[in-house]
Design a protein that fits this description.
41% helix; mainly alpha; 2 domains; GMP Synthetase, Chain A, domain 3
Length: 176
């Protein structure tokens, strides 16, 4: 296929004498449509056609309709297994929840020398809000003992770098 010289007045589709002259040009699939149509309109040489190439006339027609770029592809999902913890950390809402749970678990491990081991195994950590940490357990007797240890636990956590000024102890009621 030979390319004819452009007329003195270029056609609206570019510097080709007709759209048929531009048919079959092999275009770079990584460039966006707008850049490719600008190259065609400026008279870039057309290489030999490829069997699966995009036709410039099609690109020019899409550009005239207002389409400038190729659509983004959908995110790719792989069938590779992921650890639940890794997936949860990457999720926006779950990531902060996981970080809070890890900080609470770290605080609980810091209490090992202060709280008796039997009570420590029953503890559940709640939120730390404005320096007040909530601890929960099922036994009212263990909660009473833990309330006596609150000043010692707060002082111990502060020496370890935690900003805990007070601890609230709550008893979890059995549902049934």
């Amino acid at each position: 296929m030979s390319v004819t010289k452009p007329h003195a007045n270029p056609s609206p589709a570019g510097s080709f004498s007709s759209l048929q002259d531009a048919v079959g040009a092999d275009l770079d699939p990584h460039n966006d449509l707008k850049a490719q149509t600008q190259d065609l309109a400026q008279g870039a040489p057309t290489p030999a056609p490829a069997s699966n190439s995009v036709k410039p006339s099609t690109l020019l027609a899409f550009a005239s309709l207002g389409f400038g770029k190729k659509p983004r592809t959908a995110p790719r999902y792989t069938n590779e297994p992921q650890a639940v913890m890794n997936a949860a950390e990457r999720a926006p809402g779950l990531g902060s929840l996981m970080a809070t749970a890890q900080r609470n678990q770290k605080r609980l491990t810091l209490l090992k020398g202060v709280v008796p081991p039997i009570i420590l195994t029953q503890l559940s950590a709640g939120n730390l809000e404005q320096g007040v940490w909530c601890l929960m357990l099922k036994s009212p007797a263990a909660a009473g003992k833990l309330r006596q240890l609150v000043p010692a636990m707060c002082a111990h956590l502060r020496t370890k770098g935690e900003l805990v000024h007070d601890i609230t102890v709550k008893v979890i009621q059995h549902q049934g």
